[in-house]
Amino acid sequence: MSDLTDTIVALSTPPGQGAIGVIRLSGPKAIEISDKVFHGRNLTKVEGHTVHYGKIKDEEGRVIDECLATVFKAPRSYTKEDMVEISCHGSPYILEQVIQLLLRGGARQANKGEFTLRAFLNGQMDLSQAEAVADLIASEGAASHELAMNQMRGGFSDEIRKLRQELIDFAALIELELDFGEEDVEFADRGKLENLVAEIQAVIRKLINSFQLGNVIKNGVATVIAGRPNAGKSTLLNALLNEDRAIVSDIAGTTRDTIEEGLNIKGIQFRLIDTAGIREAQSQIEQLGVDKTMQKISQSTLVIYLFDVTVSKPGDLWEDVDRFLDASKVITANSRQIFVANKMDLNPYTRPEDYYKEGLIAYDNLVTISAKNMMNIEYLKDRLYEAVIKTPDLNDQTIVSNNRHYDALYKSNEALDRVMAGLKGGITGDFIAMDIRQALHHLGEITGQIYTDDLLDSIFGRFCIGK
Amino acid sequence: MSDLTDTIVALSTPPGQGAIGVIRLSGPKAIEISDKVFHGRNLTKVEGHTVHYGKIKDEEGRVIDECLATVFKAPRSYTKEDMVEISCHGSPYILEQVIQLLLRGGARQANKGEFTLRAFLNGQMDLSQAEAVADLIASEGAASHELAMNQMRGGFSDEIRKLRQELIDFAALIELELDFGEEDVEFADRGKLENLVAEIQAVIRKLINSFQLGNVIKNGVATVIAGRPNAGKSTLLNALLNEDRAIVSDIAGTTRDTIEEGLNIKGIQFRLIDTAGIREAQSQIEQLGVDKTMQKISQSTLVIYLFDVTVSKPGDLWEDVDRFLDASKVITANSRQIFVANKMDLNPYTRPEDYYKEGLIAYDNLVTISAKNMMNIEYLKDRLYEAVIKTPDLNDQTIVSNNRHYDALYKSNEALDRVMAGLKGGITGDFIAMDIRQALHHLGEITGQIYTDDLLDSIFGRFCIGK
User: Fold this and answer.
1) pTM of the entire predicted model
2) Is there a contact between A94 and B145 if contact means CB atoms under 8 Å apart?
3) CATH code given to domain B8-124
4) How far apart (Å, rounded) are the C-alpha atoms in residues A444 and A455?
């Protein structure tokens, strides 16, 4: 996968008809191969970062398209190689013809993510930055976008590199001792070493802990809306979605599970799961759908329990909630419950505190609304946001959102635990050095200072073709 | 629709996730508006046809994307206006954010085809060329692609302009006579005038006649495959599709009717309609499907009637064909029938001539094959091609493929018929001049020398956004 000697080509814009489609080439012969089929200016003689109008002709001289060719010269390109972007009319037929022509001309069909792989291998970006490119493209909301953008621009990499450097310095001290091993010299004060490891671990643990938030930002917050029939679930759903629905549906390619609606609150994507369908299963096939919903509910992060203040007395509510929690198997440890008293406009003198129940309902998780009149809906949104994001400013911190990074940090931390135990237990330097190398190895995997072909395959295999 | 004073913006690549997405701006403030959000080189100061790397930032300074901006300066651009193309990461979320930012910056969302409309209004291309842009994007095979490409590059326009010029010269002579009307002068020899009109009409009629072919090339050849069960229809279908299926399915966005398969023969698209489903209708809903199929069959251009030589004796075949033609209501005048004798490998001594029937089956429409062994399949394809395309070289002629052009040519020809009748009947010059103006008007509609806003709306409304 990591052969850099050939020239790769792929369609880089989404498939299908459009105004324009862009074909990308990268590699030592990108300009030469393009020039053979491009009739206009001689592309081998133009400057980098210039655009040229011309015709693409096949071997028999037939005009396949009129197009624009943009030339990038190594190392000033995405891949740090010579690159050409050919902007054609957005006809799948034409794009296919042009790609086949370029393949016959000596290019090779690019694998998934191979342009970015080359950018990585050529030192344009490190591995976690490359991964952020895919996250960036997949980002659907402001927060996941910001997370990916920060990571792509190297914020996370800087932090890891700093940690790694500190560990390397630490390792140097230990290894120096090993060189003098027989003489039983201790160059490094053990107490100071412990402090250093503790500091490094504190940072790593902070990063590990940020993963829960990072995961929520990246994948959205699974939010179940529960409650009796006629509590006003649909009205609440509509009230919550009110402004966002148009924007969401504008984004083409948004796939939506039938029972889920997406709601964006301050950039965090909430996936609202309606439980209305649960009661209605009549056939076996329907039951399968219900089972799937129940599974989603049990894995949810947030439960909105809605009740109608004109109907549900406190005792009813408590009973309903107990039954729901029991039936839905919500793992309460993973979920937060927000109780929403609806139809307050019809019962304005309802006393919310009557519904309080120790360990379940209190001031901080009970919200009174009227979904129909849009009363307190914005307040409810704030509460939903706060229930998930306790940090006021996402900009102030590095957040881990990638499973692979989490795993590497976790393993690195384990190795450092052993280092710490070794230091405290007076274990000899060579064992400590081994664990430090282990920790270094895992941190290096994050930025790609250490990698295997399998790792690259698995990372770039998730990219789209042409990126 | 034809306001050129504002600056338009649209996504020009297909919607959905991809490696890159391109946003286009055109208009007097295209560069200024882009420069406000683009942080890198000052775009207002760079040369045209250059590409620049930078960051797109929103009003609060948040980085929305790292991108490439290409600047085109009027009149050296597609629209002949200042243009900017911003190549972003192919995330629908990012593209939406960037477009909204540009809209807030003073651009307006472009209507369908508005970039090409501006190219037309600014004299970059005439109307038939603009229409060819849409045809080019929609082209799915070599022939329709070539047709659109020729038209876009002005071949058809040249022909129409030449005709129009000849008519204008002719009109000048007639109008000159009118100026001297009272004196009963005839500047133009009536015989020579008749010859001139006849010549012009000959060209127009040739264009009109080319429409049938043009339509077939553009929309494909509806081809019905009929025959008894077990005649080998599926095997034939697979044999015919053998090489092409992979290529067809490679092209994303190809929509396919469930009962139709596309087959490309020498660049002509044949839409193969399987009649297998006809017999199987059991419910009312199925019957609706069958009715639709029958309708397609009755409108088909070609019927492949397949029979099994090991089973169907000549008498059986004739009877079957009669029954099929009767039941399917194929308008025989519109369709050509090709009879295909299958399973010749099992009955190699079959004498094809035994199946001949006057006015129905003869040497030139009977093909013997073995679908299973791929015997004579290429020959059958040649025969299918020849049944539709009688012209050996499509390059040698101008072919009309657009309904609107056909209509205009037809009306122009009608007007010229009246001119001819007038000349022959000795009608006075002013009536003849009126009909000539009529003919000129219709020809002018084709190239857009004459147009209305409604016409532009209807033409460009069929374009995609961003073109």
Assistant:
1) 0.80
2) yes
3) 3.30.1360.120
4) 13
